[in-house]
Task: structure prediction
Amino acid sequence: MGALGDEEFRAEVRAFIAAELPSDMASRTLLGYHPHKPDVEFWTAKLDKRGWAALNWPVEYGGTGWSITKRHIFDEECYLAGCPAVNPQAFHLVGPIIYAIGNEAQKNFFLPKIRSGEHFWAQGFSEPNAGSDLAALQTRAVREDDEYIVNGQKIWTSEAQYCDWVFCLVRTSTEGRKQAGISFLLVDLKAPGITIRPIIGIEGGHVLNEVFFEDVRVPVANRIGEENEGWTYAKQLLGAERTFSAVVPRCKGLAVRTRAIASRDGSKGRGKLIDDPHFARRLAQLEIELMAHEATLARVVAEEEAGVNQHSPTPSILKVKGTELLQKLGALAIEALGDSAIPDYPEADYLLDPPNDAPGAPAAYGVVSDFLYHRSATIYGGANEVQRNIIAAQLLRA
Result:
């Protein structure tokens, strides 16, 4: 039997989701709040059993071997249906570094546990004085025999409060250029000497954290690649992070949700906002930009798979455009909600069991929280101002 066509494949994905995704889980995800860990664990295990967890990985490491088009179809169908997203730091960031750079022992231990959802991962890169200038990091790792002794602090560490491992950039040498003395370590978050403190976001949610390391012992066996070569590996990962930050499925879902909100009858006898030509034109313009953005992402992924344009600035372009589209669509969704966007819809109260006497409209649940949280989207993953410098430098060099 030949390979499925794209529309047959879409039907297969929809059938799988309909059979395996609980309706209450889909409803929680579609609210737009931060992922509920038990839901993510459940869905990751389902995908792994089907062989669909690691979409972008090579087949020999458990990947699907799908075409770019099929991966886009799968992402789109999952997002629009309300499937919980897999742990992105694990699948999109550290997993590819482990299978590309790691040794056989590391691949055999970590990759199956990522695919199954047994291990959740956090990213330990940014520090209080090393965010956009990541090479300025100061967390030190001093080698003693077969261990590193790690001391320092990481910040803005997403979801560390429920992660099992963190992949860290640490300084192992102060000789030469600041990029030259950095190593890449895999650290067990249960290790003695690690303290995690929450950073509560403007939306009231707990996603971000500070992570402190005090004489934390990390086996040398948990170092990826060679000592002092971590910056080289990090650049590969940051390119993937910026491509992931294109957030195409999220933008598409938000565009659909915004159009649905604007298509409701207005309060106090007002008509549908979508019938306002000015609003409809603004939404249509963003939808057109999103289509172009999605096409750019497909081209970037195709070039990456073909091994061409390795020094292209397009990952940075995708990061800038995707995060700005996300913010613009979020602002338009807030505008469409009108007065319903004014009340607070706390995640802790609304994610699992929205109250019957809640203020505002059910359509607003999660939209306000998502909009506030993603004010940071143009900062995380490398501030957009820095990305524009990278784009300019690479284009001028070309």
Q: What stands out?
A: The CA atoms of residues 141 and 172 lie 5 Å apart. The longest strand covers residues 206-219.
